Amino acid sequence: MRKAIGIVVLAAIAAAGAGWVLTAPKRLPEARFTGMTGDPAAGERVFTAAGCASCHHAPDASGEDKLVLSGGQRFASDYGTFVAPNISPDPENGIGDWGLADFANAVMRGVSPSGQHLYPAFPYTAYAHMRDKDVVDLWAYLLTLPASETPSPPHEVGFPFNIRRGVGAWKLLYMSDDWVMSDVPDAQLERGRYLVEALAHCGECHTPRDGLGGLDTSAWLTGAPNPNGRGSIPGLTPDRLDWDAGSIAYYLESGFTPDYDSAGGHMVAVVENFAKLDPADREAVAAYLKALPAGGAMD
């Protein structure tokens, strides 16, 4: 009996050890960005497409104050309320004392400079597809923005979701280098995929989630409940959004639908960002959405 108990205990210890190793934060290779120099002007375009200010400016900020990334906006979910942190260049309360590698690991791997898993309310599962040059350019641009001394408020997340190591297990299930739309036959669709699946992270709101909070990519962009519990977010697949490509591109520029309605909620910020991009980018997004299969399933 003692031998059997000993075997069980050893097996439990081995399983716990394996789980600890498997859920450890996985950083990018140390030398990946060595020698790369960012272009702030190009980084501004990445910043706009990625909607960084939309989440990280202070609540109710307007105009130029939206470039002060002091954080504080609250995002309710089934797992608690996440609060956007200060990502301004302030060295004490923002990210001004980070290096490029720290920033890249946060954006592309969801790992903080101290080695903690970041919560996936920060859409690093989408940003994981970003091109290295875009990450470097974005970092260069962020360093040109105003610093804010506002401390980052803590997230309001209870047990067991406040156990950061559990996010490592979540990443094993949902972090992937694979694109949802694997076949892009031309440059326009490739650009559209990059904007939708990576920079603009459209799937984060427009795709339903499973019981563990991961995106159900078999129903990609088919719509989802609003995380704050009020209403739903519409689907973007052709069977749910029957606008032609020109109407989609115009909506992303103006916020007006073919029925003369206008964007509301968080889409106001999305349109505000897309309106600043090149027309070709809006057309690429429209082409991507029109190329989606009905029902969202890619296979």
UniProtKB/TrEMBL annotation:
PANTHER family referenced in this protein's UniProt entry, alphabetically: ALCOHOL DEHYDROGENASE CYTOCHROME C SUBUNIT (PTHR35008:SF8), BLL4482 PROTEIN-RELATED (PTHR35008)
Gene3D superfamilies: Cytochrome c-like domain
Record-annotated Cytochrome c domain positions: 38-146, 187-293
GO molecular function terms attached to this record: electron transfer activity; heme binding; metal ion binding
Protein keywords: Heme, Iron, Metal-binding
Pfam families according to UniProt: Cytochrom_C
InterPro entries according to UniProt: Cyt_c-like_dom, Cyt_c-like_dom_sf, Cytochrome_c-type_DH
Keyword Iron assigned: yes
Protein known as: Diheme cytochrome c-type
